[in-house]
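Re-run requested by the PI after the first attempt was lost when the workstation crashed. Everything re-entered from the original request form. Ligand of interest: guanosine-5'-diphosphate.
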Amino acid sequence: DKETIGIIAEEFGYGVDFVSAEVQEAIEVEEDSDTDLVTRPPIVTVMGHVDHGKTSLLDYIRKTNVTDGEAGGITQHIGSYSVELDQGARMTFIDTPGHEAFTAMRARGAQVTDLAIIIVAADDAVMPQTKEAISHAQSAEIPFIIAMNKCDREESNPDKIRTELAELGIQVEEWGGKTQSQEISAKTGLGIPELLEKVILEAEMLDLKANPEKRAVGTIIESSLDKGRGYVTNLIVSAGTLRVGDPMLAGQHSGKVRAMTNERGDALQEAGPSMPVSILGLDGAPNAGDDFHIFENEKEAQKRQQLQREQGIRTQKQVTLEELGRRIAVGEFKELNLIIKGDVDGSTEALADSLLKQSTEKVQVNVIHKAVGQISESDVLLASASEAIIIGFQVRPSGTARKLAEREGIQIRMYSIIYQAIEEMKEAMEGLLSAKIEERVVGTAEIR
Ligand code: GDP
């Protein structure tokens, strides 16, 4: 590892120069000067509990297209779409609702979203996935706006939602807090223009800028193989301008941009910052969340692709409790992120509180998400995106979550005694964790 190499090299009188193992990261990025930067539209994700109206809201916005000025409505699914408000302000929506997709992308290092709309059905309540969505937005450090949906229904009670949010420490603006909120109906369209105005307002505060003058960079949203057309890649340009004919490297794949269309099916010659487009021309299907880069010429893109392929190694960047003490000792570790899942609310809270108290001068312990229930794939994704360790108290991971954790190198520690969890954390932070209790799955059975 890095520190040991450094120490050994020094012993022998040599210096060490570290380069990134990820070819993508080693690609030189063109520097922007302040004068090159222009305002770009915000990129928005809709998150919230199942059935609270995420899809309905996205559908409503897509269908109404917001201004009538644009000829030919949105006709194609390209993973995201761009809309314009009456005053000319634009914004881009990611068309896959929910925090799973959002966090899966973040786990690959892509932060595409600038802000989130968290939708809560006002005839229901703040639910587990509402809380999850909030945790995910907070851990990504993006602002969010609360949309209280289904306000057309008589049973709706937005004040109850405001109260429940306040209990989570989220004060909405109407009640003197900082979080913007809006009562809407994704069915009738009530409040949606106001909601979008609030998105623009929030975006103005973020002061989002990008340089449109350089070679394009951006993120893959999704890709697929089309029988007639070959690989279709949907992406969002984050900076620069993408043009037909540009040699592209996206994840493990490369090619020349052969054709480019927008969500209305119009053929485009170029696309600027925050624009969602669908392109043809890559020699494979990159993963959602992969970065793409444009090179001077095709040769360069191919060379990079070759390097990428040869470099089959994956560097382990996730933390484990065993490794903690060592990393703290060499001073490279400042924050320990934890996700705590428990069987009942009381013990989850108690465990979270006690673990938070283990913070020392050197290391800050953060609980980025705590909830009751089984350890899910979503928890593992969140852990992967925020370099966290998962603590399970009297709960276990689901089969798929366990597999995902193995693949992503996420540590899941399971305890059934609070005292033991705290003791181990203490030892780990002091670098003394020695006893190795390993749980091995020797078989699984299904209860019928
Ligand atoms: P998702 O799971 O969050 O994507 O939720 P959906 O958009 O699929 O909505 C779940 C259900 O709630 C559907 O039956 C919708 O028709 C309904 N629904 C969504 N928004 C509203 C609304 O504003 N008012 C009413 N009355 N029903 C809604």
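Saved to the shared folder this time. The first helix runs from residue 2 to 11.
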